[in-house]
Structure formats: structure tokens, C-alpha cells
Amino acid sequence: QLQLQESGPGLVKPSETLSLTCTISGGSISSSNYYWGWIRQPPGKGLEWIGNIYYSESTYYNPSLKSRVTISVDTSKNQFSLTLSSVTAADTAVYYCARRAFTWDFDYWGQGILVTVSS
Amino acid sequence: QSALTQTASVSGSPGQSITISCTGTSSDVGGYNLVSWYQQHPGKVPKLMIYEVSKRPSGVSNRFSGSKSGNTASLTISGLQAEDEADYYCCSYVDSSTLQFGGGTKLTVL
Questions:
Q1: By the 8 A CB rule, do B51 and A101 touch?
Q2: Can you tell me the distance from the alpha carbon of A10 to that of B78, in angstroms, rounded to the nearest whole number?
Q3: Alpha carbons A115 and A92: distance in angstroms, whole number
Q4: Helix (H) and strand (E) counts for chain A?
Q5: Does A47 contact B104 at a Cβ distance shorter than 8 Å?
Q6: Cβ distance of B103 and A46 shorter than 8 Å
């Protein structure tokens, strides 16, 4: 059974960089059939797509976040990562990693990790 | 890109059918058959209910169905049950290989 698990700091200071990692178990990040993505959800609000990456490192980002986001992959560790620079309180959210099919839907999700931006 | 438009809330009684709509543009919902729907119970992880407008993943009840007309996609839940009470989000592929979620609809089962 495929499982995804987010990890990283739960608290980040304003203007600093948020860094999260998603570890995949029960499957391979190098599968040619899937992309891997990040989605976030501010407290009490809706879902926002951040971006996707393919194992070959092809990436797609949300235009509203593109200047601050980098998604990378480490096939040797079966992980992919998210960095978001120059964070503000508006970046406080639960961050989910997920598997994205070629039909552009997310069929497996991690449990999510709450990241709070505060001094 | 703007969020897809969903009605903020909808309600229904057990056994009834309800429909949640998701309105976009010809650049997203209307232009591609790549609309998906997610169910999210409070404090839980979103769950894929419908993909490619009308396809159900294995294990999802056939009480859930999806459709599309023009720039509007719809999720219909028939035989409403108490466990269906949740937030529902649509999501669509958008020009230039990006994705857009709707603002979400809160379903209340009366």
C-alpha cells in the first residue's frame, strides 16, 4: 500500500524559507506513470495547488507562487521536497504531499503537516 | 488564474439527492475533461471521489457521480447519508499545465 509522509519544521519565521520533505513508502518515486505534488490548506480555508514534479525533475508550479517555490526530487531516498522562500503569515497552512496521475488528479495523500509562520 | 466557483454550502435530507456545481472558464473546466472532486471530512485528508469528470476510483460508492456541461462541472450525490456530510472541492486542469481548485462546498445532511 502506497504511503506518503510529510516532514519538516512546524514553525518558520517570517521572511525565512519553509522546507518540507515527502517520503514515499510502498512504491517508487521513479514510476513512469505518476507525478508527485504539493497542496496546501490555510486554517479554515480551501485547498491550493502548489506544484508537481516528475522523477525526471520536470516541474509545474502555481503561477501565483512560482517566484518563491522550488520542488525537487531525490530518487535515491524515494523523497521529494518543497521549498518556499520569503514566507509570511499568509503561508501558514497544512501542507500535503500527494501522488498525481497523468489525468491530473491526486489519488494518494500524506497526512499533512501544519506549518505556522510566526516570529 | 482565478479559483473555480463553487456554492459555499448545500444541504439535503437523508435519502435525497444533491448536486454541487463548479464553474470555470473555457481555459479550465470547459476546455478539458480533467475535472476531479475531493471529499474532506473535518480534520481529515482529502479523498478523491471523481476523476476525469465522471470516473469513480475503486472503492468509491456509486452514489457519487460527476458530469460536465460547458464551463460547469457537477457532482451529484444520491441517496444522501449522514456520512456524506463534508466539504467537497472540485479541481480542474488549466491551460499551461497548471491546476486550480474550487473554493469548496460545505454539505450538511439535515
A1: yes
A2: 40
A3: 6
A4: 0, 11
A5: yes
A6: yes
Cell digits for B69?
456541461
Cα–chain-centroid distance for residue B94? 16
- Closest chain B C-alpha to A119 CA, distance in angstroms: 26
User: Given an 8 Å threshold on Cβ–Cβ distance, is A49 in contact with B3?
Assistant: no
Taking residues B29-39, what's their average pLDDT?
97
Q: What is the dihedral of CA B18, B24, B27, B32, to 10 degrees?
A: 0
C-alpha grid cell, residue B42 = 473535518
Q: For B4-29, b where at least 16 C-beta lie within 10 A, e where not — what string?
A: bbbeeebebeeeeebebbbbbbebbb
Strands B18-23 and B5-6 come out as antiparallel
Residue A118 banded pLDDT, cuts 50, 70, 90: very high
Report how far residue A8's alpha carbon sits from residue B10's, in angstroms, rounded to the nearest whole number. Answer: 37
d(CA B42, CA B25): 29
Of B1, B36, B100, which has the smallest distance from its Cβ to A105's Cβ? B36
Q: Residue A57's pLDDT is what?
A: 81
CA A118/CA A70 separation, integer angstroms: 21
The 10s digit of each residue's pLDDT in B8-28 is 999 999 999 999 999 999 999
Residues of B in Cβ contact (< 8 Å) with A39: 46, 101
Residues in chain A: 119
Collapsing DSSP to helix, strand or coil, B63 comes out as coil
